[in-house]
Design goal:
By secondary structure, the chain is an alpha+beta fold. Helices cover about 15% and strands about 30% of the residues. Bound molecules: manganese (II) ion. The site of manganese (II) ion has 6 residues, from loops.
């Protein structure tokens, strides 16, 4: 199933070019009280929500996808885990271009040395909310990435078991200010993590290790690759991350960007597409 969030926090099932409002399915969620859990309640109870959504959807009138404002399909991830330089050709382009590496050695290191980093959860938006660029006197880049939504608690998981912990997939945009600072700072302004257009449950993705992904800016293609070129694939990233910290339901892992990163500016319109997931359009403005 394809599950989206839209407008003022409504829940929808995506059916072709239409959305069916299944907000009533959120009634199956337990009533959490303070202190709130460190996982995302919807993803932690995804099977129950999907089951109720299936029965609610049948009676819901279809709404055109284009008529709604799409939000992030995960509202409250505990963390956004990011893989730097996880495609060899992107590592090559970073090493070849001072405007990308800024002579920071850790920016040029392979992922096995550089490790993973986190984006602030406050950076998260959906495609309909757009990207508000800060520091527009500096280079701001798009990065298109396969995003993995963790479905259940994962701690010290082996790569062989990695896929068992995945709830679904989405498109992730890792918007980035280039410069010498820590990645977590440069990649965490509000709206610099775009997740969408919806969550596709894992059963609908035949092979996450073989998905075409691409991005265009104002209709001009900038990045086009396939997840088969990931240095660390989805299960390897889950092993790597969960060796350092527990992954909780709703945590998002963005798997890294292929070559072709390039600048964006206010007024641009980004179109990102991943095979078997869908296409999303994201507008860029000044903050
Ligand atoms: Mn990235």
């Amino acid at each position: 199933m394809k599950l989206c969030r839209y407008n003022e926090g409504r829940l929808g099932v995506v059916d072709g070019d239409a959305i069916r409002d299944v907000t009533a399915a959120l009634d199956v969620l337990p009533a959490y009280r303070y202190p709130l859990p460190s996982f995302d309640p919807l993803i932690a109870n995804l099977d129950a929500v999907l089951s109720r959504a299936r029965s609610v959807a049948a009676a819901a009138a279809p709404i055109p996808v284009r008529s709604v404002t799409l939000l992030s399909p995960v509202a409250n991830p505990g963390k956004i885990v990011c893989a730097p330089v996880n495609y060899q050709k992107h590592l090559d382009e970073v090493r070849d271009d001072a405007s990308l590496h800024h002579n920071v050695s850790m920016t040029m290191a392979p992922i096995q040395t550089a490790g993973l980093f986190l984006k602030a959860t406050s950076a998260l938006v959906g495609p309909g909310q757009g990207i508000a660029l800060r520091k527009i006197d500096r280079r701001n880049d798009h990065e298109v990435e396969l995003a993995v939504i963790i479905g259940r608690q994962a701690n010290n998981v082996s790569a062989a078991d990695g896929y068992k912990y995945v709830a679904g997939y989405a498109i992730g945009l890792d918007i980035t200010i280039r410069g010498p600072e820590e990645r977590s700072l440069r990649k965490s302004p509000d709206s610099y993590a775009v997740l969408g257009p919806w969550l596709v449950t894992a059963d609908e993705i035949p092979d996450p290790g073989s998905l075409d992904l691409r991005i265009a800016v104002n209709g001009e293609q900038r990045q086009s690759s396939n997840t088969r070129y990931l240095i660390l694939g989805v299960p390897q990233l889950i092993e790597y991350a969960s060796a350092f910290y527990t992954l909780n339901p709703g945590d998002v892992v963005i798997t890294g960007t292929p070559e072709g990163v390039s600048p964006i500016q206010p007024g641009d319109v980004i179109t990102a597409c991943i095979e078997h997931i869908g296409t999303m359009e994201v507008k860029v403005r000044a903050a």
